[in-house]
Amino acid sequence: MAHIDKITEEKIKDAARIEEVVGDFVQLRKRGVEYQGLCPFHDDHSIGSFSVNPSKGICMCFSCGKGGDALYFLMNKRENPLSYPDALRYLADKYHIYIDDNDHERWKNLRPVNPTPIRFTQKEPIYLSRDIVRETTRSKDDINFVQWFRSLEWDSQQRERVESVLWQYCVGGWRDGRVTFWQIDETGRPHSAKLMRYQDNGKRSRTENPGWLHYQEGIRERLDLEKCAHQSCFFGAHLLKKYPNAIVNIVESEKTALIMAVSKGSLEDNLWLACGGLQHFKIDMMKPLFEQKRTVYLWPDRDGMNDWLDKRKQMPKDADVRIYTRFIEHYWIEDDGPKADVADITLRLMDHPETAPKQSPELVGKIIAKNPEINKLVDPDWNANEPFYMLTPLQQRLHDAVERNKKLKKQQKDIDNDREPKE
Predict the structure, then answer these.
(1) Counting CB atoms within 10 angstroms of each CB, which of 105, 107, 370, 389 has the fewest?
(2) Would you say residue 302 lies in a domain?
(3) Mean pLDDT in residue range 289-301
(4) Is 1 within the bounds of a domain?
(5) Has residue 71 been placed in a domain?
(6) How far apart are CA 393 and CA 154, in angstroms?
(7) 106 falls in which pLDDT band (50, 70, 90)?
(8) Are 88 and 4 in contact, with CB atoms under 8 Å apart?
(9) Where does a domain end: 78, 99, 120?
(10) 142-172: per-residue pLDDT in tens?
């Protein structure tokens, strides 16, 4: 029985056009000499990291690090990957190349000769100039996201933190009106910035997927993307050095990190970082946190708790990393939707505090007993006969402040005791 020969194999490979093959499964958009689309190798939600280069005959994803020729694409796509013989059959049929397929068992045993995966994570990381960071931060005032963020119903203490948070996280604006969320590592080196377009209401535009600054005209030309590639780090990672004693809280969205940084008190106590989406979260990004022995809380979206648990299992068992779900479990209501995160719930509580679940009077009584100052802020309209009572966000912050002062006093007392001469 006949089987495919090497000449026919090479004929099939030569006929395959990468943009046509990938285009059968991925919606592509022309970007200069290349095409871009959602990555077929991982759960991608933003256009920008996956590109197709017709002149080189390869596709590549700078996010997950996978890429190769048409055969590699067909054999490694997430949905319905093909075996090597079936991938050859698909291409032969597509390009009308006759093959004698009688010897099916022999086909199944064929091993790929050429579709070697390309691992872009081995390239040198991209570092952009700090001058570009300064340029974008000076251009943020007319950006929809920044205007919306400033317009939120912050209380007086929160409003005092808004500009500081925007400045410390280097939030800026690009020339086309998109907001820039910079990824600057713990040593202060700018990797790149995610570009996102927001509407006036703070919702992300669904007609335009996020992009990356290092792909933009005027920036990309300065880089040798054959030798270097974007390597993700946490949004806000550059603040780790500034706040060495803060608990580190990690969320998915940059927007969420900013909202929580303003709404939940001082960055000295709680620093908020964002991975930019769970599909971009890599365990290597945690290395600085492990080395610094930081206490880390992971805040999953309501529909992502199992995925975050899987991420935690990949980390060292002795790392001080915990999954924090209590807030969402306690405060989530059906109107928040199945994909709500901590910021969605926080904004809802800011706008509609009456929707918060109420705490038992026993718990509130214990807190007030420890911190009498809170009693001055108790809602005068509260009926003591009601079975439940809600501790308002203002009361909660006062409680936290009192507890923090107690902690500082205790630390100072311990220091003074250490200074006393020992007999």
Answers:
(1) 105
(2) yes
(3) 94
(4) no
(5) yes
(6) 11
(7) very low
(8) yes
(9) 120
(10) 999 999 999 999 988 899 999 999 999 999 9
> pTM for this one?
0.62
Q: What was the pLDDT predicted at 112?
A: 43
Tell me the pLDDT band of 206, cut-offs 50, 70 and 90.
Answer: confident
Q: Of 94, 120, 146, which residue is a domain's last?
A: 120
Identify the domain containing residue 32 by its residue range: 6-120
- Three-state SS annotation for the chain: CCCCCHHHHHHHHHHCCHHHHHHCCCCCEEECCEEEECCCCCCCCCCCCEEEECCCCEEEECCCCCEECHHHHHHHCCCCCCCHHHHHHHHHHHCCCCCCCCCHHHHHCCCCCCCCCCCHHHCEECCCCHHHHHHHHCCCCCCHHHHHHHHCCCCHHHHHHHHHHHHHCCCEECCCCCEEEEEECCCCCEEEEEEECECCCCCECCCCCCEEHHHCCCCHHHCCCCCEECCCCCECHHHCCCCCCCEEEEECCHHHHHHHHHHCCCCCCEEEEECCCHHHCCHHHHHHHHHCCCCEEECCCCCCHHHHHHHHHCCCCCCCEEECCHHHHHHCCHHHCCCCCHHHHHHHHHHCHHHCCCECHHHHHHHHHHCHHHHHHCCCCCCCCCCCECCCHHHHHHHHHHHHHHHHHHHHHHHHHHHCCCC
Residue 70 sits in a domain whose CATH number is 3.90.580.10
Residues 68 and 179 in one domain: no
Domain check: are 170 and 268 in the same one?
yes
Q: Does residue 379 belong to any structural domain of this protein?
A: yes
> Are residue 23 and residue 104 in the same domain, yes or no?
yes
Are 60 and 114 within one domain? yes
Question: Does the pLDDT of residue 311 top 60, yes or no?
Answer: yes
Residue 321: the pLDDT is 94
Residues 222 and 294 in one domain: yes
Q: Same domain for 237 and 328?
A: yes
Taking residues 43-55, what's their average pLDDT?
Answer: 81
Query: pLDDT band for position 399 (50/70/90)?
Result: low
- Sheet containing 29-31: which strands, arranged edge to edge? 29-31, 34-37, 50-53, 58-61, 67-68
